Amino acid sequence: MARMGPLFYRPVAAGVIIAMRVAEQHLNRRGIAHGGMLVTLADSAMGMNLARAREPRLWTVTSSLSTDFIDAARHGDWVEAHVEILKIGVRLAYANCYLTVGARRILRASGVFAMVHPVRADESSEG
Fold first, then answer.
1. pTM
2. Which terminal residue of the chain has fewer beta carbons within 10 Å of its beta carbon, N or C?
3. Would the CA dihedral through 15, 6, 118, 47 be positive or negative?
4. Nearest Cα to 58, choosing from 19, 106, 90, 101?
5. Residue 55 — pLDDT band, cuts 50, 70, 90?
6. Is the separation of the CB atoms in 77 and 101 below 8 Å?
7. Residues contacting 90, CB < 8 A, separation 6+
């Protein structure tokens, strides 16, 4: 996550939009934004929006993630992650995310997230 930054956050009625400027370190050998970095942004945006969707905050881990690359992001592009929470159940939550550059969609992601208990500072995590 540290190599993705800096990340920018803009609160909206439905949660938060997370955005970033594509820099040199985000590019692959073809000179476009690395797909893994874009997927990480989408996954993180869905998790952050789910966490803020309820009080107390939800703790989730990604159970399933499906992505479709629609177009490329290039050096200097401003990429925004727009999240739609579909359902929050007792054990699972469902969300979609669209990464956009202006009005152009570049990635669609769909995720299923499992609810977990927060890890205390003095205990280890299972994963």
1. 0.89
2. C
3. positive
4. 90
5. confident
6. yes
7. 115
